[in-house]
Design brief:
Blueprint lengths: L7 E4 L13 H9 L2 E4 L8 E7 L6 E7 L3 E5 L1 H7 L12 H13 L5 E5 H9 L10 E6 L6 H12 L5 E7 L2 E4 H6 L4 E5 L2 E5 L6
Length: 207
Amino acid sequence: MELLVHDLLQIRHIEGIISNEKVPQWVRESLFHSPWVVVRRAPLQDGIIPIGVRGEHRNQRFGAYLPSSEVVMKVTPEQLVSQAGWRTSARLHTIRAFQILDIVSSYYGRYDWSWGLTGSIGFELASSTPTARPDSDLDIVIRMPQPLARETARTLHDWHTQLPIRVDAQLETPFGAVALAEYARHEKQVLLRTSSGPKLVNNPWSP
């Protein structure tokens, strides 16, 4: 099974999680109510998947590992866009991000990009668990195997700033992820999030 950072996984058993630390009680409670985790940015090791568990509060994030045999289902950020589940969500009139996603999807349609939804919005659409808040940011991942022109990045970022909610877009390069806003602003070094940690780089598409 091919896995990418930000993919959402439904897991089979809470006990399947592997961690060198004691698993907090909130993690068990969270997975009992919603057995979903996200693939995090870390090296994969012999069928062991690096995962993140999200809790009810922002400070509740727990990194662990999961054997691939414990995966029941995978949902990618791109699938969440193609399924457009926000249109039929019972919380459409509550969550502002849901209300603008048709506009965002239409705008992104002018580009030949593979992109998807992450964060609390993506998690809610995948798991049907009400994790988003009315004012939640809209988190987006854009798969960008080839360098993106700075002018295009600035155009997209400027369009994001006109939306009624904050958009946090990440450009996913073959070597890690860089924030669209930072890439659009800076001509020189930017922070690249890699599987071995953050690095300052001149070119996010260069090893």
